[in-house]
Amino acid sequence: MKKVAEKQGAIFHFNQNVEKIVTEEGVARGIVVNGEFKAFDVIIASSDYHHTENMLNSELRNYDQKYWKSRTFAPSCLIYYLGFKEKLPKLKHHTLFFENDLDEHIKSIYEEKMA
Q1: How many Cβ atoms from other residues are within 10 Å of residue 21's Cβ?
Q2: Residue 50: what are its φ and ψ, rounded to 5°?
Q3: How big is the CA angle at 107 (ends 101 and 113), to the nearest 5 degrees?
Q4: pLDDT, tens only, 65-113
Q5: Residues 30, 41: contact at Cβ < 8 Å?
Q6: Distance of CA 108 to CAs 10, 24, 49, 101, 105, Å?
Q7: What DSSP letter does each residue of 41-98 carry, written as one string?
């Protein structure tokens, strides 16, 4: 995906400390990275919602800190949509693959944490 995006002009910045999302009239215009402003046409935040929202000015946030403290956080996921030209035997149309046992993962988040 990275190679496809780069061929179309996208530039990726890795291992950078994003400190703030800078907005102008409610529209994201750039970010502050390691103390330096960088302007962008489009900003895609892959961090979790809470972290991303905290990089915005408070008037642009949907939730306050009281709300976030009342939440139980679970890890996010990254989903790749793959298309194949041929049919793969024994694979249904929508198939999800997990690195670890999903039931154990859910139990560790919601049952063991609350115990």
Answers
A1: 20
A2: -60, -50
A3: 135
A4: 999 988 877 666 777 777 888 888 888 777 777 778 888 878 877 777 6
A5: no
A6: 38, 41, 21, 11, 5
A7: S-----S-HHHHHHTS-GGG-SS-HHHHHT--------------SSPPTT--SS----
Q: Residue 22 in 3-state DSSP? A: strand
Selection from 93, 70, 90 nearest residue 81 by Cα: 93
Contacts of 30 (CB under 8 A, 6+ apart): 21, 22, 37, 38, 39, 40, 43
d(CA 73, CA 108): 12
At residue 29, the 3 state secondary structure works out as strand
Distance of CA 79 to the CA centre of its chain: 11
